[in-house]
Amino acid sequence: MSKSVLEYLVEMVQIDSESLDERAMADYLIKELQQLGGEVREDKANEKTGGNAGNVIAWFDGKEGIEPLMLNAHMDTVTPGNGVVPDIRGGIMYSAGGTVLGADDKSGIAMILAVIAQRKKEGNLQVPLEVVFTISEEIGLLGAKELDCSLLRSKRGYSLDGNKMGELVKASPSQINYKVTFQGKSVHAGVEPEKGLNAIVIAADYLRKLPDGRIDEVTTMNIGKIKGGKATNIVCDEVMIEGEIRSHKENKLQSLLELVQKEAESVKEKWKTGVKFEWHTSFKGLQFEETEDLIEISHEAFSSLGINQGLVINGGGSDANALAEHGIRLAVVGTGMQKIHTIEEFIDLEDLETGYQWLDNILSIWEERCGS
Ligand SMILES: [Zn+2]
After folding, report:
1. Ligand 1 centroid from CA 19, angstroms
2. Is 0.85 surpassed by the pTM of this model?
3. Which single residue of 91, 105, 134, 236 has CA 20 to 30 Å from 155?
4. Which of 18, 67, 137, 146 is catalytic?
5. What digits encode the pLDDT tens for the residues 270-307?
6. Which of 18, 76, 167, 238 is catalytic?
């Protein structure tokens, strides 16, 4: 007996899998994928991320001459995500209380497993499939970044990790993270403050010069962390701030990076003190043309369900961004999960079923279009 998409989802939301603690979920997936006849492997990404499970990758043979299709979703949830009790009312699944539901992203996993189960039952799995279930997506795409790509055989596919049903992400931003550390000099604040140098005052001077929030339609900036100071009677000797810049425009991203760096330099000169500036690219943006295969195939899959595919611009990053760095092209599709990352998270069971049908259609269209 193959399980339905709803049965899979009900089972999986009850398995604890907050980021870095995906062991139980990985074990469940390995067992299910093996039962479905997949060639299953777990990589060692967690040796680098510090979690207790690796990414789970499964291969399903198909007809020769058809390009393999990658299907991706992540197995971790945000917190509070332990002890989830699913509660179905009026055709909608919620969490019974106090936790997220974890439809982000177990709804995506459920769709993938259910379609494979159904196709296997019918003896009708023609498209070679590669399933990639990642760890720790929610804390910086860690699993996707550390994915052991030597285990992979496919290059294109879909990431079932978007929000609204019927929507496909046509563009997502690049992101840069930076960290600035300001050196002061600590002395007793009441005895000899004139001999000190207050790093908090220096950091404030710097922050005044930075733009923050929405910069333009496709660019945002945020200072997200500030740390420093020991006591009110000590002049502060070190302050560290961390921020991010996101943009769909590469030149805008670069010019803002130059700005935050230049202002750090000028504060350094003005206060004649140590200022350390560090930055790294967190992930690269993704852009799709409407005529690209992945977009057209999905459009067709939705059309035959009577849904007009919406193409949206996303402000966040997902596994698809990290996997792009490995030369893998994934289009992100919505699963119907709503109010994600809150304890009000829910999913309409009609959307769950639609996503399942969409994916089944994808396999049929892929078989026609991507065969030799
Ligand atoms: Zn997600």
Report:
1. 11
2. yes
3. 105
4. 137
5. 999 999 999 999 898 999 999 999 999 999 999 999 99
6. 76
